Amino acid sequence: MMSPISDAAISTARSGQQNDAFNDFTRAIQLNTTDPRAYHNRGLIYQQRGQQELAIADFTKAISLSPKSAQPYNGRGVSYLALNDDQNAKADFDKALALDQQNAESWANLGLIFERQGDFTKAASYYQKAKQLNPNYQPALQGLQRTLGTT
């Protein structure tokens, strides 16, 4: 269960106040070290700051606390992508999809891995799946444009 501080931090983050949200998530973790969403959300802020190793550590902690949640796997995979670690990124996106087949972000992220590897046909199929799940998901549409020249 999330703490009231963690709930408040999510609201703060949504309002664009990342530094305040970061501090609130850190405080929530100090008060409740078993709140996976606080770790996940602080990981997202680390990610936005370009602190991928710290993000990976928080996503990993969130996974250890809630191993059946797809979002921390996806988040950690994004950080691995930023570090050009496609192998670990792919493993995390695959795990996220094993937990939630409806996760358009993970489908698109796998598409990006295949695109980076030069397999545009396979990449396009993953982007297409993401688009089917969320027709307005911009990373999927942009990926289709890059790989097929269409959306």
Write up this protein.
- This protein is mainly α and 151 residues long.
- The protein folds into two domains: 1-85, Alpha Horseshoe (Serine Threonine Protein Phosphatase 5, Tetratricopeptide repeat); 101-151, Alpha Horseshoe (Serine Threonine Protein Phosphatase 5, Tetratricopeptide repeat), CATH 1.25.40.10.
- 77% of the residues lie in helices and 0% in strands.
- The protein is built from nine helices and no strands.
- The protein is elongated.
- Mean pLDDT is 89; it is low at 1-6.
What distinguishing features does this structure have?
Serine Threonine Protein Phosphatase 5, Tetratricopeptide repeat; 151 residues; disordered N terminus; 77% helix; 9 helices; single chain; mainly alpha
Report the average pLDDT across residues.
Answer: 89
Low-confidence stretches: 1-6
What is the fourth-level CATH superfamily of the largest domain? Tetratricopeptide repeat domain
By CATH, the architecture of the largest domain is named Alpha Horseshoe
Number of strands: 0
Largest sheet: none
Q: What count of domains describes the coordinates?
A: 2
Radius of gyration, taken over Cα atoms and rounded to an integer in Å: 16 Å
User: In percent, how much strand structure appears in the residues?
Assistant: under 5%
Sequence-ordered SSE layout with sheet pairings:
Blueprint: H1 4-14, H2 18-31, H3 36-48, H4 52-65, H5 70-82, H6 86-99, H7 104-116, H8 120-133, H9 138-148
Helix pairs in contact: 1-2, 2-3, 3-4, 3-5, 4-5, 5-6, 5-7, 6-7, 7-8, 7-9, 8-9
In short:
The protein is mostly helical and 151 residues long.
